[in-house]
Design brief:
With 391 residues, the protein is of the alpha/beta class. The chain is built from 14 helices and 15 strands. Strand 11, helix 9 and strand 12 form a beta-alpha-beta unit. The longest helix has 34 residues. The two termini are 32 Å apart.
Length: 391
């Protein structure tokens, strides 16, 4: 009986709450369908989530030392396990060296440079481990989640463009879709006490208000409420320290227009309630919230350093704002709120429809299959070369 090929996925934290974890779970399904026996190497895992996938687990115990040392320990132990067991394929999520394919999910150094350009802050542990892994070059392929990230990988780490692929994240079409808008829009607006004549502008995020530029969003709101043509309300949803931002809204005299909420279930109902979703982020490597809002037929406006903006073509590129002048953003928003945007919203829904979870699954399957075919081709070439030399 022919040996079953083996694959390893190394990811320190595997649960349902992150995009990286969801992609890793998709990779398990793909590899199983391709006939691989899969082992997960991790520090933390939701065993209830993983039990149905039929994989082996290698848990690397956390050590009570600094974050960087813990990351280094995980990388070394994962490498040691792979050297001993010699899997056919190794996939890393930026957590170990010597992988065949590395999936990257953030640009830590680029974000630091953009958000804190004058900072002498000590290099973060995740940045250190990325530098160690990516500069060493013990991998065959790197996967970025946007061209924005791919460009940074090339310029910062000197990774040749031909070794980088772009795989855009997907969204759950069952959760985020245009039908949710028709069902829940008015119900949620009533619940939020939004009047018919008011325009609800929202910033929804998982957290990290600094990176998503909530400061600037509040400044935009100040400029908007000065306008007499439109009545505005503002919704902020996300997890994190919010008091300083609330105080800023008070200082700018706009606190009465704001609704503040922590991370909520059924966030699609809130997308449906919005007249406009705004993401003025300093940097967002991709920004799944943009895709989710688009799928719910919600008008979106974003800064030029949001990776999801790469999906917008033609006239939809007008929904990307360059620079950070609050008056410019306010004027753009007011012009959008004074016209019928049904056609644009339909275009956004159509664009989003190409990037569902099913799309991402197919894209990942093609990427992994292409990598495996390339490896087989290289092995055949090496075998022929060795035979020729032996003659």
């Amino acid at each position: 009986m022919e040996d079953v090929p083996t694959a390893v996925i190394a990811i320190r934290n595997l649960n349902k709450t992150t995009g990286a974890a969801r992609i890793a779970l998709q990779q398990i399904s793909i590899l199983k369908n391709l006939g691989y026996h899969v082992t997960i190497i991790c520090e933390k895992i939701n065993k209830e989530t993983i039990v149905s996938y039929g994989v082996d687990l290698k848990i690397i115990k956390k050590i009570p030392l600094s974050s960087y040392i813990r990351r280094l320990w995980f990388s070394k132990r994962a490498n040691a396990w792979c050297q001993k067991n010699k899997p056919s394929l190794i996939i890393s999520h930026g957590d170990m060296e010597n992988a065949n394919i590395i999936f990257m999910h953030n640009c830590v150094d680029l974000a630091q440079e953009i958000i804190y350009p004058k900072s002498t802050q000590q290099q973060k542990s995740v940045s250190k481990i990325h530098n160690k892994i990516l500069r060493k070059g013990n991998y065959q392929h790197v996967v970025a989640n946007s061209q924005l990230m791919a460009n940074d990988l090339t310029t910062r780490y000197g990774i040749p463009a031909q070794k980088i692929s772009i795989s855009y994240p997907g969204f759950d079409a069952h959760q985020f879709n245009v039908f949710k808008k028709s069902i829940f829009r008015q119900k949620k607006r009533d619940e939020l006490d939004i009047k018919q004549e008011e325009k609800l502008i929202g910033l929804i995020t998982s957290g990290d208000f600094k990176k998503r530029n909530l400061d600037f969003f509040i400044e935009i709101s100040r400029d908007l409420v000065k306008a007499t043509n439109v009545l505005y309300r503002f919704l902020v949803i996300g997890q994190g320290e919010i008091e300083a931002y609330k105080e800023k809204a008070v200082r700018l005299g706009v606190d009465q227009y704001f609704i503040w909420k922590k991370t909520v279930p059924e966030v699609e109902h809130y997308y449906a309630a919005l007249d406009l979703f705004v993401l003025p982020a300093h940097i967002e490597e991709f920004g799944c919230v943009i895709l989710e809002a688009m799928a719910c037929s919600t008008l979106t406006l974003m800064s030029e350093r949001v990776g999801a903006g790469e999906l917008l073509k033609g006239e939809l590129r007008n929904l990307i704002v360059k620079g950070y002048l609050s008056e410019q953003w306010a004027e753009k928003i007011e012009s959008l709120m004074l016209k019928d945007n049904a056609f644009i919203n339909n275009q956004l829904v159509e664009t989003a429809s190409y990037y569902t979870y099913e799309y991402q699954y197919q894209a990942l399957q093609s990427l992994i299959s292409d990598h495996l075919k390339e490896n087989i081709k290289d092995d055949i070439c090496t075998l022929h070369s060795e035979k020729s030399e032996s003659k």
